[in-house]
Amino acid sequence: MTVVETDRIEMADADANTERLDEWFERLERMPVPEGFRVEIVGGNVHMTPQRNTHWQIIRRILWALEDRFGREVMVLTDVRIDFPGHENGFCPDVAMLKDSAQEDGEGRWKYQDVTFVAEVISKGTAANDYDPKKTAYAVAEVPLYLIADPYQGRCHVYTHPKDGAYTTETRVDFGGEIDLTGTVIDLILKTDDFPRD
Predict the structure, then answer these.
(1) What is the total count of domains within the chain?
(2) DSSP-derived 3-state class of residue 98
(3) Per residue in 139-184, pLDDT tens?
(4) Residue 134 sits in a domain of what CATH number?
(5) 117 and 97 in contact (C-beta within 8 Å)?
(6) Does the pLDDT of residue 1 top 90, yes or no?
(7) pLDDT digits over 35-84, tens only?
(8) DSSP for 107-126?
(9) Which of 2, 3, 45, 124 has CA atoms 20 to 30 A from the CA of 153?
């Protein structure tokens, strides 16, 4: 009986979270957000970040690698809202790969349970989000593979094997090296020799 009650409370909390996020995003859509800015909500806080050329060039290279591996029909999103576990987490990942079977829900949203890979490219003003609360949310959501590309450090951080709300494995590769992702959900070697730096 307690388990059922706990499940009901968690479902009610999730519904309230979604309603608050919907309200926030509706308000944000009515605001004059400058073109070229990405808006997302992390832990109930709104973040607007400009997309710089360096940022976009790294995203493009990751997208190309996924298309080379899986074809043009691969289920990949960029800057699309996906609600993740935690307090008011309406993220818009730089790159999110979904299961082939993924379908939008009745509200036209994607479910975090269908996300198999996320890549975030660091922006100076929101770097702490990618390294901390977003990494935690992705681990809680059990996203099998999380990649951070940091053009300020000139390094990629690869997180795998989520367990109990944390990633148990981290690999670091400096730009210029190859990231061996064989044996992961994307099963490829990602070359970073042409990742630009800031």
Answers:
(1) 1
(2) strand
(3) 999 999 999 999 999 999 999 999 999 999 999 999 999 999 999 9
(4) 3.90.1570.10
(5) yes
(6) no
(7) 666 666 676 666 667 777 899 999 999 999 999 999 999 999 998 999 99
(8) TS-EEGGGEEEEEEE--GGG
(9) 45
In a domain? residue 196: no
How do residues 88-102 score in pLDDT, each as one tens digit? 878 889 999 999 999
- What does the DSSP assignment read for 29-76? HHS-PPTTEEEEEETTEEEEEE--HHHHHHHHHHHHHHHHHH-TT--E
Q: Kindly report each contact of residues 57-60 with a partner whose C-beta sits within 8 Å and lies 24 or more positions away, as own/partner.
A: 57/195, 57/196, 58/121, 58/149, 58/151, 58/195, 58/196, 59/94, 59/95, 59/119, 59/121
Angle at 50 between CA 49 and CA 56, to 5 degrees: 115
For residue 197, tell me if it sits in a domain: no
Residue 198 lies in a domain: no
Q: Which domain holds residue 7?
A: 2-191
**First-to-last CA distance in the chain?**
55
